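User: I'm curious whether this sequence folds into something compact or stays loose and floppy. Could you predict its structure so I can see for myself?
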Amino acid sequence: MKRNQYLVLLMAACLGCGKGSESEQSKFHQTAPIEETVEIKDSKTVNLDQLRSKYGPKVVDYASKVVENGQKIRESPKKQHFLYDDLEAKLKQRFPGIQPPRLFGFIDEPREIENIAMLYRAQNDVLKRASKDEINLPMSFIIASLCNEGFSLDVDGYVNGTDGFMDYGLDTFGSEFRHIVSKGYLPKSFKSKFEICERTNEVGRKVKSASFDSKQDAFEAFVATLAHRQFLFYNDLKTNGIKRVAIPEEEKLFFTYKYYNGGPNSIESLLRKRSAKALATFFDRTITYGSTGNAYVVLSGHLWLQGSGAVDPNSKGKYWWSK
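Assistant: Here's the prediction. I'll summarize afterward.
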């Protein structure tokens, strides 16, 4: 997988004739309902009612709340102290050589509501299907993973968001799709929402990626693939006699992304040690390169978003910017 160049962008992004009947005339003279809109910088508006009709009220209300949180964080006079001097500094100390990606610039403007709504709906749909396997993919982790793979959340540049290879790191989705369906994380009908595209990866190997009909479809495929890689990690733990409950949540997310970015076989020799302690020792080393380094970048981005409260829909009174 790829996209280290995206971190450069992340670092800079701190934080729509005749006379009628009596009923028709009455309808004509009624006051039209006021649609809820949000102003954005270029004088256009985001129509929240239209988005609610398209994605669902709960989804859009959550996305709106995330953007509201992001705005409050961006505008808080205490941001430097709490966000950078404290939270970021602690993550840098914990993971030496790793720069947490500054993801707040992708979730703090009204024009970003639709992206967040699509991603949140994809998360909800996939996790409902994957609940039987106890798959856990927090929104902050999904955002951090997505931003490490491509430019799909960048509203400042033109991003079609349908290229699975370039925008999402879905290098082998065309091959993996049937396995994802067999787990129930995507329906069989999803096959009509993408076309298989043969691409060449970083090591010169031909792979079967995918081109999607829409960004919503691509988001759902991305989350479903993350879920499948987490399942493969859990299954490998079981095969090697390692109890899942012995692995802390942060390590589970770390290895989930390593399985995504480096492939499901990237820790075979480590698993053969058949020890949760061996996994913990590996995690504590903080390797800064390859899929392992990328996994720390994603984990630190997740922890930064989570620790700031940016994606918490019930943030009131819980964080320095919400009191």
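Summary: Confidence is low (pLDDT under 50) at residues 1-34. Residues 61-308 form one domain.
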